[in-house]
User: Fold these one by one.
Assistant:
Number 1:
Amino acid sequence: MALLRRCRVNAALTIQLFSQLFHFINMWSFNKVVTSPTSPHPQQPHGVCYCTRTWGLRLKSKLAQLEAWAERQGLELAADCHLARIIQAAHLLQVLSRRAAPKYNADDLATLSSTCFKLNSLQLRSLLSKYQPTPDEPRLPHELIENVVR
């Protein structure tokens, strides 16, 4: 960014460059999370499942750092626009453990769905289906997944 400013690159071009970069980060990281294996296969002993609360927390922390940097550079609108999907996916993974109570009510489902407005139904289904709870959490019931997706 300092080099772009020193060379007096047009601000609109700078915004377009970083918008593309934020879009790529969003696309790559979201695809990595959604396509991660749910459990390691014998042929893939190092396969990592990213659909966990721990990875949601890590991802949210790193994205917050990126958002803070973008805000300091005056790129907060581009970051908000292009990183929204992965930020919402990370938030969803983080809060699922709080929602994994034995009983679910309509308010919980509505709140969960409203925080993920950038995620379409297929993306929500994939994230919720692949979610790996910690040993002390119950698994997400299929009915819950279908209600949230609906």
Number 2:
Amino acid sequence: LSRLLQRLLSARRSLEICLFAFSSPQLGRAVQLLHRRGVRVRVVTDAQYMGLRGSQISLLRHAGIQVRHDQESGYMHHKFAIVDRRMVITGSLNWTTQAIQNNRENLLVMEDAEYVKPFVDEFERIWEQYNPVNYSFF
């Protein structure tokens, strides 16, 4: 947790987060702190998970952070964050207290542009796909 927090808090310009599950209060506070510091924070998450008890998503939205979610069947199951478009953090870890404290999880941190760019491209693709103006309700 401390190493993940250290990398997230290194953001100066932007933080893009694409997560299935986000309920860790410590990570939620860190993301809100970055937002208050003026870092552009955008979050993509799974619609079914974001409404569950303990989810940080409503707190992030209430803080003014932009959040988008899927609208289709199946899960938005990605688990990655992009710091300043120069570092990607990815792996099996959902950002939950359970996962951090009890599970066997992995995280990989990469700063090589060759590996970061595909994650940036995927985030932007999903961000546009989940734009609320594209939602259909029928």
Number 3:
Amino acid sequence: LKVSAKAVYSKYSIEPASPINFGAMIKGTKKSQIVVLENKGMLHFKFCIRQPPEDASASERKSSKEGESAPLAARLSTARKSSSFTQSHLNLGMFTVSPCSGSIGPWGQQKITVDCFAGQEGKCEEQLYIDIPGR
């Protein structure tokens, strides 16, 4: 009886690298950018995009260590603070991210749309996390 196994772990890439900068926008306009999450490994994995915990300090939210959630920051001109979550998208201030969860098979990829609606004057900067459990 011959038995064999190969131990591997989830490998992924996020393009473009953080931060996503929408630049200056005219009030009342909308821009979209695409983020590609690619599975570069042999294992199927799930992902979930979420906002950082409210009690996380600024330094914790800005740091990314091996084995933690991958940070994805979005920056723009305007200021508003509100957030809500549904199954298909995440609203955070003036940004909407969709899809905000899913699964990617080996060597597959998922395009994630980040929409920005410049509703108010000012600057807005939010931080989002792409969580890949079990990596």
